[in-house]
Each structure stands twice: as C-alpha cells, then as structure tokens.
Amino acid sequence: MRKQSDYSQQELRQLFRERGICVVIPTYNNVGSIRRVVTEAQQFCSDIIVVDDGSTDDTMATLRSIPGITIEALPHNRGKGHALLTGFRRALQKGFAHAITMDADGQHYASDLPRFLQANIDHPGSLIVGSRQFGDAVRSKGSVFANRLSNLWFFVQTGRRLPDTQTGFRLYPLRRLHFLSLLTNRYEAELELLVGASWAGISLVDIPVNVFYPPAAERVSHFRPRADFLRITLLNCVLCLLAVVVGLPLRILRFLDKWGRTLFSLLFFLFFSLAVITPGVWLYVHLGSMTNAKRYRLHQLICRLARMVMLRLGIPGVRFGYDMAPGTDFDDPHIIICNHQSHLDLMCMLIFTPRIVFLTNDWVWRNPFYGFLIRHAEYLPVREGLEALMPQLRTLVERGYSIAVFPEGTRSPDGRIGRFHQGAFYLARELHLDILPMILYGTGHVLRKKTYHLNRWPIYIKVGAAVDQEELRRLGGLREQANTLRHRYEREYQNICNDIEQHI
Fold first, then answer.
1. CA end-to-end span of the chain, whole Å?
2. Is the distance from CB of 100 to CB of 171 less than 8 angstroms?
3. Dihedrals φ, ψ of 378, to 5°?
4. Which listed residue, of 59, 88, 236, 378, carries a Cα 20 to 30 Å from 417's Cα?
5. Is the CB of residue 84 less than 8 Å from the CB of residue 104?
6. pTM
7. What are the C-alpha distances in Å from 92 to residues 46, 49, 134, 189?
8. 308-350 pLDDT, tens per residue?
9. Contact in structure between 98 and 19 (CB atoms under 8 Å)
C-alpha cells in the first residue's frame, strides 16, 4: 500500500474522505488565527467542522467567510470539552468514522495531517496521539511540570505510557467512543478521552508532530491556571479511584477474553486434528487402495471442515464474510493467487471448492498436526521447484483441480501487499490457465505474524474476475504481469480497508 508521501494533495483529500476522516476544530475568540488554521487544514482534508464555543469577537464572521466548512455555533461559552463533544456528534451525523482534532490557536501544523492519515491506515481502530516535538520552543517550567505530571497520572490510571498526554492534536475513532456522554465540559475532557479509550480497550498510538509556540505576548490561551488546574487535579483523583473499581477489572476481563478465546480455539484445533482428523485420515488412506476418486473425497472433507469452521462455528470474536465476482466457476481449473497474511489464510480459501491444491512451503508440508492430511490431499512443496513439479501439476489440472499460490511467497508482517514473484504467472502460461485473484483482509489482524493470541477483527475475502491468457499477454512478460497484478491488489485491498475500517 502506498505511503502518504506518495500522494498529491488532491489524492490525500480523497483518501481522507474514503476512510471517513474529518477535522474538528473547537474555537473561542481566535479571530487572529482561525482563518489560517482552517484554510491550511483544507489543503489536506476537505471536510472541516469548526465549533465556535460562544466567541465574543469576530471569529464567527471570519468563519462564515470561509467556503466549504461546516460551522457549529454555540450560543454561550461552554468549554473545550463541550465543543469537542458537539463536533464529534456532528461528525457522526455526517457519517464520519474518525475525527482529527486541532487547536484553533495555530500551534498545530496542518502539514502533519497526512501523518495521522498514515497512522490510521497502519493502526486502524486506534486513537492516534500527536506527540509534540518542542525542539527550541520556549516553555515555562509550569508547563513542563504539568505535562510530566499528566503523563504520570495517566500511567497510574491506565498502566500505559504516553509521551504527551496534554496534546490536543489527535485522531479519534468516533464509533468506538461509547462514553462520550460522560465527558465534562472543559479542558479536562481531553484527559478523560484518553483514559476512557484506554479502559475501553482502544489501542493508543503516538506519532511525532511539530508544534509552534508564538511569543508569549501573542499567545491566546483560555486556560485558567487556578480553576482549571484544580478541576484537573480533582478529576485525576476521581480517575485513580475509578481505575481500581472500573479500569482494572476491564483490563482483566479483556485479558481473559483474549486468551480464553485463543485457548478455546487452540484446544478445538488440537483435539480435532490429533484425535479426530489425523487418525480418521490415516484409516481412510490405509483401508484399500488410494484412487483418484478416494483422493477427491479427501478434498471434499477438507472443504467441509473449512466451511464448518468459517461459516458455521466461526472463530470466537471474528466476523467472516466474502464476495464473489459474477460468473466465477470453480469447476474450471485456475491458477488461484491470494495475498498472504496469516496461518488462517488457507482455511478461508478452502471454503469455495474442494478442487483446489496448494503449493506450500516445507514446514507446512511437514506440519505435525495436519501435514499427514495435506500430503495425501496432494498439496505440493515448492522446495522441489516448479519445473520438477510440472508433471504432477499437469495431472492435477487434467483432473479438474485449481492450483493455489501465494505470489508474495511469505506472510506479510503488517498486511501490506508485498512484491509478487513470477512463479504463479509462469504456471498460468505453462498450464494455459486463467488467473483467479482472491484478496484477503483481516486474517493478519486476527492472528498477527509472530504472535500467539487471537484478536477480535473481521475477516473478508473477495474473489475477483478471472484474468485470462489474452489479457495476461497484453500486459507483457512475466515480470510485467506480476507487477500489474500487484498494483491491482494494492488498489483493491486499500478500497476494502477503507470500507471495513470505518466500522471497526
């Protein structure tokens, strides 16, 4: 998937909208800076919601002169927390899934907005916190102390560390903030949002952002040092108490849920693979001669098992869905290619047809739990090389089987589409088969590479239209075919991510 630095500003604005991201800017008496803040933000994101918190200067008149923005005008000053809540509710009404908050005093740089977009792509469903890089900015000792104290309070209340808990430059996953009605009205609401998100199990990701502090004489601040500091202190005391009676139990429940689902799935897999499937297949193979018809019934068993797990029983905490291009016919042999994210990928692909054979790496072929099954189901190890496998592959195709290949060659560590090798396209040419693309989403989130627990996340697989030999020849040689199909995968995978991740 492309990085945000590869996009033009017009493409960035389109991608912000496709991912359901708007910018919310609360303002109160910021007539000197609000036009610049809004117009600079519009260069990157077209959807700007400005909440005027009862300004008494010409802020509203300035906002009305800026085209293309949504204005929420509050009759009286209610505080930043109330303004944020008003902006969030308006964003949800307009169908947005995420909101990036910026301060109206000009301390945040709109040029950092693409960083939040990239972080949202890399960490969907997370609350992204812009950690301010102060550099040579002149800060009072009180400001430095307050930020450090806030970070300490936050760690005590949540067990998580963040380098900058006082920043107002953040991206919120709005549909996961089910506690918005509990927010207080003033500055402490931003602390409540962080703590509430952590207790709700929302991942918190910090990214570096630039910050501008104008000279002290030019700064506009509505923070009331005594009153607001006292409110924040009292709130922290309350949150520390709630951390014991609410936050800690929620953390324990999430831990038990995560590992309980993982343990259940593991025991289910071990029991059926070791106590049922492997012994049953062993008896099936050794009772009588192994004919082609008998091997096909073995493929049917594998397909039924996959359908039972994915479509009926399901993986705990996981929603599964799929879509198929009109006219797709699995009775005709194809070279099936699919992006590779997780050990769960094969199970997802096997639901469509029993007439499928995978080219696997060596450790899968020799797996102690299901290796016996897949070896007798005629899956083939790629270590022997495609030329050596070609006679067996031709025989399988003649018997009506499709050949499934992961063109990336290995699992993606982060879900991105990796470089496509040419092997699948070589097979398609030599065997005179169309290429059938499958695009898989979510398995890399459910079971991440180098992790051992299951996460709650949707899985979706899209079966695209077949690419026939005539179209492949028009694309050029094997390298050009691989590159072109990879770029198609990247575009379609990004579209799938944009659609699904707005509802997570």
1. 20
2. yes
3. 75, 20
4. 378
5. no
6. 0.89
7. 16, 11, 33, 19
8. 999 988 888 899 999 999 999 999 999 999 999 998 999 999 9
9. yes
